[in-house]
Amino acid sequence: MRALAPALALVLAALTAAPPAAGAAPAPPVPAPAGSAAAAPGIPRLTDDRGRVLTLRGWNVEDKTHRGDAALSAITERHFRDLRAQGFNFARLLVFWDDLEPVRGRYSEAYLRKIERILDWAARHRVRVLIDAHQDVFGPAFGHRGIPAWATRTDGLPFTPHPDDWFAEYFEPAVQRAFTHLYEDEDLRRAQARMWRVLAARLGDHPAVFGYDLVNEPMGELRPGEDLPAAARRIEREHLTPMYNRLADAVRSVDDDSWLFVEPTPIVGEGVPTGLGRIEDPKVVYAPHFYNTAMEAGADYDPSAGWIEAYEAAVTVYPARYRVPVVVGEWGPLNNSLPHMGRFYREALASLNRYSSGWAGYVWCYGGGYCAVDATGAWRTNKEQTAAPYAEAVAGRVVEQSPYRLVYVAGRGGTTDIALPRVPGGWRVTLEGRARLLPGTPGRARVVAVPGARVTVTVARAVNLR
Question: pTM of this prediction?
Answer without folding.
Answer: 0.93
